[in-house]
Amino acid sequence: MKQLFSLLFLCFLSLSPQLQAQQWFNDKDLTQTGVYYYPEHWDESQWECDFKQMRDLGFEFTHFAEFAWAQLEPEEGKYDFAWLDRAVALAAKYNLKVVMCTSTATPPVWMTRKYPEIRVKLEDGTVLDHGARQHASFASPLYRELSYKMIEKLAQHYGKDSRIIGWQLDNEPAVQFDYNPKAEQGFRDFLRKKYNNHIKALNDAWGTAFWSEVYSSFDEITLPKTRQMFMNHHQILDYRRFAAGQTNDFLDQQCLLIRKYSKDQWVVTNYIPNYDEGHIGGSKTLDFQVYTRYMVYGDNEGIGRRGYRVGNPLRIAKANDFFRPFQGTYGVMELQPGQVNWGSINPQPLPGAVRLWMWSVFAGGSDFICTYRYRQPLFGTEQYHYGIVDTDGVTVTPGGQEYQQFIEEIKLLRKHYAPREDKPKEYLARKTAILHNHENGWSIQRQKQNVTWDTEKHIDKYYRPLKSFGAPVDFITEEKNFEDYPVMIVPAYQLADKELVQRWMDYVMQGGNLVLTCRTAHKDRMGRLFEAPFGSLINDLTGNSMDFYDLLLPEDPGIIQMDEKNYTWNTWGEILTPGKDSQVWATYSNEFYEGKPGVTFRKLGKGTVTYVGVDSTDGSLETEVLKKLYTTIQIPVMDLPYGVTMEYRNGFGIVLNYSDKPYKFDLPKGANLLIGEEMIPTAGVLVFKI
Ligand code: GAL
Q1: Which of 396, 399, 330, 403 is nearest to 33 (CA)?
Q2: How far apart are CA 524 and CA 176, in angstroms?
Q3: C or N terminus of the chain, fewer CB within 10 Å?
């Protein structure tokens, strides 16, 4: 019997992430919609009225206790869940499920005063204090112990409660660059473990023979002062790894504690999509990945004069494509319902934009969308932040009305749903991976070599054309199977090793189409250059060798030519000698290396390798290279204008228009229009059934 049990347990552990996600979400629901509520902000006599209206607007779940540690544990070791029980019961009365939070982002004042050592210390020496949030150090064992005690009580209380659908850990946990003495101690322990207690191994990894930096013991090591000029960047690389690990571990421990008591509840956190911080996907115990996203706050990343009211057309798409591949599903915990309070300018979104964002989240394949927040707060730091209802607590805001509309539309679609993966063949044929490791960005950041270099923008120069191709894109890590993708782009992948290069080679030999871009595989995983010709680790793949790289003044860019068209560049250009079987796709047309190649293509094994050794000014060269590649390998693509995207899920096609002009979309043959019209206005949405 015991053996059978362990076997079943092992089977459960080995369930694929996709299968596990199916435990909680049904194809027929498509997506569920929820909203944040802070019972502790409102007089209890108003709760019922709020939940009733929430239900009437169509919301299916609410979100509690995110910042309520002071109310949950008013004195050390004295817990009060009675008020929360009443809120959960009232929500249930109106059919609202609850997402419960661990509230570790806001420790109560008794803790900060009694144990001041739990506070984060900034690099400049400032010690954070009570009165805001997120001032406690994840590296402090005491803060963690106090957190775990509170979480354990909460999990014991709500872990088996079927009204609670899931848990959110902390709030937007970031990587803390914390100089608390416990962090320094933790860093030393991390290094001892990593280098097996051999200080020589650390000295080699950090190249400390340089500038007399050599250490004779781990006790001499301090946290790197990142603002000090020329600080050892190998050390900073390890520090960033350690710091991301602190956040990951804190979340893992919280999750495991909840798991001890919970039944049928998912556990997640709500990350800000800071792709570069390196912690997203790092807490391996979480059930799936969830993000928060704000679209309109002042910067004009949108299209046209009023683009600042609509937002960056690919901001949500990219988060979808980044978060979904980890476990095959994702949710969005926060999406603004209107104006925010923290932007440089806090404009009204364009009418329709809030609904457009919800459809953007849906299009990527999410299982839920939750909005921040139900009522506009009357006091505190977030005054002026819109809610689903106004300051009077009852008038539905324009954003609230758009939520209501979206929820009604989803109910309509539920009648037509198909399985999640029901997508047209020609869409799936365009499936493309972008290989991502945040450590490349960290490493390049310390040695950009040209002030105009921007790793994320470099990656976007490939992502943007892919979305105009109507390609489903997955950002993947090295843990994934490359073979699942007909095309894989590896942009500026600076840190690599022979094993990874061999995996790229195997992928190509078996028929994969690999696109490598400049700065790839220049350094080992510790950021040291290889003792070999510069950049030569990938020569067997590209067939080329690199003569040198050049960097130019932004005000006097160079020209590179492809198919008789000129493109400008200045940030980074590699001057190549092509191999015998390389096709030269683009050549530099000025400077002393005029006529030399910057972009090459070759067939290798059953696949192909495209090498783009240059970063163009506006990404137009990268777009043309990808177009040429997909034509060569005979993968037909769409040609959607920037601002228009199209995705498929559950047998629906979803077309979104972020541009400042109406867009006429021709429905595929036999498709059935369900929402919107073929002429899609700005901020408009079209949904059809295939
Ligand atoms: C988010 C945060 C929320 C709330 C919101 C306001 O970044 O997670 O707690 O502060 O911003 O827009």
Answers
A1: 403
A2: 26
A3: N
Omega of the bond prior to 373 within 30 degrees of 0, cis?
yes
Number of H helices, E strands in the chain: 19, 25
Q: How far is the CA of 372 from the centre of ligand 1 (A)?
A: 7
CB 143 within 8 A of CB 130: no
Supply the pTM of this predicted model.
Answer: 0.96
Q: Note whether 288 and 326 are within 8 A (CB).
A: yes
Consecutive 10-residue averages of pLDDT for the chain (690 residues) = 44 52 88 98 98 98 98 98 98 98 98 98 98 98 98 98 98 97 98 98 98 98 96 98 98 98 96 94 97 96 97 98 97 98 97 98 98 97 97 98 98 97 97 98 96 98 98 98 98 98 98 98 98 97 98 98 98 97 97 98 98 98 98 98 98 98 97 98 98
Residues 6+ apart with CB under 8 A from 13: none
So what's the pLDDT on residue 23? 83
Whole-number Å distance, alpha carbon 374 to ligand 1 midpoint, is 13
Whether 47 contacts 356, CB under 8 Å: no
CB atoms within 10 A of CB 119: 21
**Residues having CB within 6 Å of any atom of ligand 1:** 171-172, 292, 294, 334, 340, 372, 382, 385
Task: Please give the single-letter amino acid code of residue 6.
Answer: S
**Residue the block writes with tokens 């803390």:** 176
- Could you count the other beta carbons within 10 Å of the beta carbon of residue 86? 13
In a mutational test of the pocket of ligand 1, which residue from 36, 382, 383, 386 has the highest number of ligand atoms less than 8 Å from its CB?
A: 382
Distance CA 306, CA 91 (A): 39
Residues 6+ positions from 170 with CB-CB distance below 8 Å = 101, 102, 104, 105, 250, 251, 254, 269
How large is the angle between the packed helices 455-468 and 620-632, nearest 10 degrees?
50
Task: Give kind and range of the element (H or E) at residue 545.
Answer: strand 545-550
Atom of ligand 1 nearest to the CA of 381: 10
User: Of 598, 618, 599, nearest to 610 (Cα)?
Assistant: 599
Closest CA to 270 of 286, 285, 258, 259: 286
| 288 C-alpha to ligand 1 centroid (Å) | 20
Distances (CA, A) of 438 to 324, 492, 587, 690: 17, 11, 30, 37
Question: Which tokens sit at 631?
Answer: 């034509």
